[in-house]
Specification:
Layout: H1 4-16, H2 19-25, H3 30-44, E1 49-52, E2 55-58, H4 60-85, E3 92-98, H5 103-117, E4 121-127, H6 133-139, E5 144-150, E6 161-175, E7 188-191, H7 197-208, E8 214-218, H8 222-230, E9 236-239, E10 251-266, H9 273-286
Helix pairs in contact: 1-2, 1-3, 1-4, 2-3, 5-9
Length: about 300
């Protein structure tokens, strides 16, 4: 019988590429991960890993096993959800990952509603960049997450992760005066740190109208972004949720670009009472804020 814990290690190695991040996300030591994967090879009787120096690559047989692992984990998650649904009260821990601009107007009222309606449910809210959310879900560090995509930066489908729409926002050009994106070819730009969705959006949106932005400042805090815009230090792209607290002088020009937010969770967990309650609370928190909700 194959050990599910070892299968999870192989699955994470497939997605993360090296042993060190696998060990970190699943709270093993790197040597323990290596030992468990070697034991899995012995149990299966086939070669699963190709080792070249310090690098490790999965064999075709290992990739096939990872595909089966996704199905196995989904069934186990569904079984856990069914058991939880049989309980008379909602209890346990629910770990929610959220991006910064959603904390005041969406996550906070949702957390208050969940705590009021389900006092036995322990909430753990973590602020993360959306680019990190699916890895945290897959590794078990989160149970539900708010993930994003922009026009020009689509969200890739992730095996083992389900999602459903939560809200849509317009993206604006923040500048000292009304202007168009094309007119900012020679402007200084303020963007997120490289590797974030906001940084990728800035680069790709500008490239789509014919130029590469001159990014002078990097910050992942939209409050800091708008303060820099107000101080004449550049222009930036800002979604609806971040546009409500602009310093004086900043003008928002709506663009034909959207940010879409989804609720993501491990496949098989959607019917878990805790996940269901959180999704209902998050939808309820979005609607009063005037956001456009997907059908």
């Amino acid at each position: 019988m194959l050990d599910v814990r070892k299968l999870r290690l192989l699955r994470e190695l497939y997605y993360r590429g090296t042993i060190a991040p696998v060990a970190e996300v699943l709270t093993y030591t790197p040597s323990a991960v290596s030992q468990q994967l070697s034991a899995l090879e012995r149990e299966t009787g086939v070669s699963l890993l190709e080792r070249t120096g310090r690098t490790v690559r999965l064999t075709p047989a290992a990739v096939t096993l990872v595909e089966h692992t996704e199905s196995i984990l989904e069934i186990l998650h569904q079984a856990s959800a069914d058991l939880a649904a049989a309980a008379t009260t909602l209890s346990g821990t629910l770990r929610i990952g959220v991006f910064p601009t959603a904390v005041p107007s969406i996550m906070t009222p949702a957390a208050v509603a969940l705590s009021t309606d389900h006092p036995g449910l322990s909430l753990l809210v973590s602020e993360l960049d959306p680019a990190m959310m699916t890895g945290a879900l897959r590794g078990g560090a989160l149970d539900i997450a708010l993930v994003q995509e922009y026009d020009h930066v689509p969200l890739a489908e992730e095996p083992g992760v389900g999602r459903e729409p939560l809200m849509r926002e317009t993206v604006h050009l923040a500048a000292l005066g009304s202007t168009s994106l094309k007119d900012q070819r020679n402007a200084s730009w303020i963007a997120g740190t490289p590797g974030t969705l906001c940084h990728a959006l800035t680069v790709r949106a500008c490239e789509a109208v014919g130029f590469t932005p001159i990014i002078r400042h990097h910050t992942d805090d939209f409050g800091a972004v708008l303060a820099l815009v107000a101080a004449g230090q550049g222009v930036a792209l800002v979604p609806d949720l971040a546009a409500g607290t602009a310093p004086g002088g900043v003008v928002f020009t709506p663009l034909a670009i959207e940010r879409r937010t989804y609720l993501a969770y491990r496949r098989g967990t959607r019917t878990h009472p805790g996940i269901t309650a959180a999704i209902q609370a998050l939808h309820a928190a979005v609607s009063p804020n005037g956001q456009r909700v997907d059908p």
